[in-house]
Each structure stands twice: as structure tokens, then as C-alpha cells.
Amino acid sequence: MNQNIYTENEKFSPEAWNLLMQYRLSPDLFISKGKVSEEDIRAYIQEHEVPIPQPLSPIQQVIIKNVSESAKKPVYRIYDGIDAAFLRAHETKERTLTVWIIKLIAEAMMQNPNTRMSLDTHTFQLWPNASISLAMAHGEALYMPVFKDVNKKSVDRIAQELKTYKERVRSGRVLAANLVGSTFGISNLGMTGIERFDAVVNRNDTGIAAIGCEKQGQISVTLTIDHRFINGWQAAEFMQTIKRLAEDLDFFKSALIEK
Questions:
Q1: Does residue 45 share a domain with residue 8?
Q2: Which end of the chain is less congested by CB atoms within 10 angstroms, N or C?
Q3: What is the CATH number of the domain that holds 100?
Q4: How is 118-182 classified by DSSP, letter by letter?
Q5: Full-prediction pTM beyond 0.85?
């Protein structure tokens, strides 16, 4: 593009030149025409179905990088459902289904140690507590804030942390420190009516539970698991633990207590 030859003051009207730059079209495309108007540019865009370039925002760049890294993981999936009766019976305005799911997964993680592992350069690291990343979106932004040491916390404390994270996500004030330290993740789209879906494993996690909507008393759960950490038998045991806890009144009683 030679701006010494083509300028908005000569061949192109100011509106045409701005549109040309917006769509990143070469002025050479219009070399055979006289004075080029905005309508001429729009007609070319329509005729040739030219897409408008959309620059990547910083958060989109981060998401693309993380998803690209996650796509390299050797994953597999397990599909099942959990009984919703006790979860719904204990649900309140503050103690939402998401809060209970976070606590439920954390307790299952404590009983299935491989879900609490991370990979160092030469070793696996087994962490003593269950820390969980939760997918949270606002507009184009997608965050995975981490709930640390969930096994030690009551559902009321988890509910307060979830409220705080929601406010930070809405205002774009999620800190880098809020996004590290998990070994397992949760993505809940059940409130949208989606019955089942696959979720992408967070960059450093061993797996993720994709929570769908309730149907005929069952809440669907899809586990996407990193095979480097958890084999198929261990993943099946993890799913069975989640199902058993969802029907265990003792779990719901102990979840009210801060440890």
C-alpha cells in the first residue's frame, strides 16, 4: 500500500479511506476507478463477502493460549449422572447448587488422591488439600478462579467466596493470584438448560467436571480427565464417589462445619 499515491484527500473520500483501513483492504483494488466513495467500498465488501478483522483483546489472547495448551493434554471422558434429590433439598439462595457441587467435588477429591496431583519437571506432586478452579464468564472474558482448600471450608464460606468472585469477574478485577493453585476444575452450564457437554481441562489441572441440567431427577456430569494423572479405573472410582456423596446425608451435615 503506497500512501504517497493513494490518500483520502485524492482518490478516496475520508469515509471510504476509513472503511478501507477498517477492513484492511488494499487501495490497489480500486486502481481502475475514479474517486472512490464509501458506497464503493461497501459494495466491494458485500460482493466479495469480506470479513471485518476483529483484534484480539488481552483476555482473548490469554484464553487462546490456555486452550491451545490444554488441547495438548491426553484426555478421555466419562459420562454419568448424580441424584439431585439431596442437593436440591439443601439448596438455598446463598447455598446454591454450584456451591454444593464445589463442596461435593472437593470431598470426592479428598477420597481420590490422584485428582490432587500436579506435574513438576521430574515428579508428581500430591497436594494435601482440594483446590478447585471454576469456569466463570462475563462477556468475552472467561476466568477460572480458584477456590483454595475447599475441603476445610463450610458451604457458607464457599458461598461468600463465590459471591466475591462473581463481583470481581463482573468488574474485571480478577487477580492473577486468584487463578492459580487448583488441581481440578468445574464448569456448570446446567442453569442454561444444557443437558451434557464437554469442558476443556484448565491448563494445570488433572481434570474437569462439566455439570449439565437436571433431567428426571439426575444431574449429568461429564468428567474430562488427563490420562497422565488418572487412569480409567481411578476416574470411574472418582465418579462413583461423587455419586455416593450426593446421596449421603452425613456429607451434607459435615459440609456446614468449618474445619
A1: yes
A2: C
A3: 3.30.559.10
A4: EE-SS-EEE-SS--EEE-EEETTEEE--EETTGGGS-HHHHHHHHHHHHHHHHHT---GGGG---
A5: no
Task: Round the average pLDDT of the chain to a whole number and report it.
Answer: 91
Q: Report the DSSP pairing between strands 184-188 and 132-134.
A: parallel
In a domain, 259, yes or no: no
Report the alpha-carbon distance of residue 121 to residue 118 in Å, rounded: 10
The strand pairing partners of 187, in sequence order, are 210
Assigned C-alpha cell, 117: 496431583
* Grid cell for residue 174: 480478577
Q: Is 184 helix (H, G, I), strand (E, B) or coil?
A: strand
Q: Does one domain contain both 10 and 75? A: no
Task: Evaluate if residue 155 carries a pLDDT over 50.
Answer: yes
Residues 6 or more apart from 99 whose CB is under 8 A from it? 155, 158, 159, 162
Whether the CB-CB separation of 227 and 215 falls below 8 Å is answered with no
pLDDT reading at 240 higher than 70: yes
